[in-house]
Amino acid sequence: MADPKKLFIKTYGCQMNVYDSERMAEALGGSGYVETRTPEDADMILLNTCHIREKAAEKVYSELGRYKGLKAANPDLKIGVAGCVAQAEGDEIMRRQPLVDLVVGPQAYHRLPEMEARARSGHKALDTDFPAEDKFEHLKARPKAARGPTAFLTVQEGCDKFCAFCVVPYTRGAEVSRPVNRILGEARDLVERGVREITLLGQNVNAYHGAGPDGETSLAGLIWALNDIDGLERIRFTTSHPNDMSDDLIAAHGTCEKLMPYLHLPVQSGSDRILKRMNRAHTRDSYLALIDRLRAARPDILISGDFIVGFPEESDEDFADTLDLIERVGYGQAFSFKYSPRPGTPAAERPQVAPDVADARLQELQALITRQQRARQDAMVGQTVGVLFEKPGRLPGQMVGKSDHLHAVHVDDCAARPGDLCAVRIVSSGPNSLAGILA
Ligand code: 5AD
Ligand code: SF4
């Protein structure tokens, strides 16, 4: 038998890209590829790209430039670009970087094997369609290899919200939900292979409305169906829009034992004036009221968020409103970004905030978030929490895993094995993780 060809995939951006990369590697497995960790010995390099902020696309072009020498040394090397930069820039990528053999948008991954064959026969291959068929249904099934204890599972893709700053509705297309039975099948398969925790993914995951046995099913309905799978211990989901936090989903946070007490709920800004310009379709008060309802359902729920500073026309007063909202919510985790104008989005046309002003705001906001994160983490000391162990730590005998609230936890001299879910008493809090002992 011929030696397998080697595939190197580099993944940028969100967890949905991590999931897509896994599935692409599996699909190309059918064309005789095995994954390698280094680009140097690869027969095919695939960059799974992100277009959400400017720097992300620039990184892709500079990475491609670095492969020039590899292609000179190995003329059979094929280079592909997948993901949202592929969708947004299409054949511009091939023009700008002639090294590229293949460009595939996120909705066309099931066509990769054909495209690979085309590239092997010396032609360029480009596909940035939004085909009617479901790419996941047509992607090869996951092979039965053992898995670590945690996995991502994409249940919904695309977004119809059109926030004024965001490229996702253009690069990922309209909202589409996968049917319940396919998700349950994939989840059972993951559990058989060792997975104990599944994070359901979607750009707008809580807008999920997949076809189920009794008609259209909400995300809460899907979570309850997953709750019945023996051996699955934990369920998470991300990312949610405040306007799609339905009553049944809020209630599930209080009643569904496997649903973890953590919610990533981006608000982007605390100023009503800016929220309106962002086309977010919610206000600061409606967001704060929602947080109150979630905490009434699940008092210890840890809230995570995303913030954009320096959105066009953001004033000092608007920014002060954002800081005030952060103070009121008390985030356990948050991601913050300086506004980056994306071509084709409405906000890119508006008057921009001076970069030094945006930088200063970002620093101030991040300092506040860091203090809050640390305070939430420190407050875990003395509590007993569930920890799903994932792998050995750096020290001999040490094991590391994640708590119910998604804090990193390490335990020294630990008898637990990867995949064990144990009660752990937290004894101290460090800069990036908690230390505990088995309870
Ligand atoms: N500029 C800066 N941040 C952005 N995000 C999305 N688009 C932009 C942009 N143009 C941030 C939002 C979103 C997260 C995934 O990325 O906060 O929630
Ligand atoms: Fe982008 Fe999220 Fe807004 Fe959709 S809801 S447009 S993915 S920021």
From TrEMBL:
GO molecular function: 4 iron, 4 sulfur cluster binding; metal ion binding; tRNA-2-methylthio-N(6)-dimethylallyladenosine(37) synthase activity
Keyword annotations from UniProtKB, A to Z: 4Fe-4S, Cytoplasm, Iron, Iron-sulfur, Metal-binding, S-adenosyl-L-methionine, Transferase, tRNA processing
Compartments in which it is found: Cytoplasm
Reaction equation(s) it catalyzes: N(6)-dimethylallyladenosine(37) in tRNA + (sulfur carrier)-SH + AH2 + 2 S-adenosyl-L-methionine = 2-methylsulfanyl-N(6)-dimethylallyladenosine(37) in tRNA + (sulfur carrier)-H + 5'-deoxyadenosine + L-methionine + A + S-adenosyl-L-homocysteine + 2 H(+); 2-thio-N(6)-dimethylallyladenosine(37) in tRNA + S-adenosyl-L-methionine = 2-methylsulfanyl-N(6)-dimethylallyladenosine(37) in tRNA + S-adenosyl-L-homocysteine + H(+); N(6)-dimethylallyladenosine(37) in tRNA + (sulfur carrier)-SH + AH2 + S-adenosyl-L-methionine = 2-thio-N(6)-dimethylallyladenosine(37) in tRNA + (sulfur carrier)-H + 5'-deoxyadenosine + L-methionine + A + H(+)
Binding site for [4Fe-4S] cluster 1: C14, C50, C84
Cellular-component GO terms for this entry: cytosol
EC numbers on record: 2.8.4.3
All copies of domain TRAM, residue ranges: 378-439
Keyword Glycoprotein: no
Record domain MTTase N-terminal: where: 5-121
Cofactor: [4Fe-4S] cluster
Main EC class the enzyme belongs to: transferase
General function of this protein: Catalyzes the methylthiolation of N6-(dimethylallyl)adenosine (i(6)A), leading to the formation of 2-methylthio-N6-(dimethylallyl)adenosine (ms(2)i(6)A) at position 37 in tRNAs that read codons beginning with uridine.
UniProt cross-references to PANTHER family, sorted A to Z: CDK5 REGULATORY SUBUNIT-ASSOCIATED PROTEIN 1, MITOCHONDRIAL TRNA METHYLTHIOTRANSFERASE CDK5RAP1
The name this protein goes by in its record: tRNA-2-methylthio-N(6)-dimethylallyladenosine synthase
Source organism per UniProt: Aquicoccus porphyridii
Phylogenetic placement of the source organism: Bacteria, Pseudomonadati, Pseudomonadota, Alphaproteobacteria, Rhodobacterales
GN (gene name): miaB
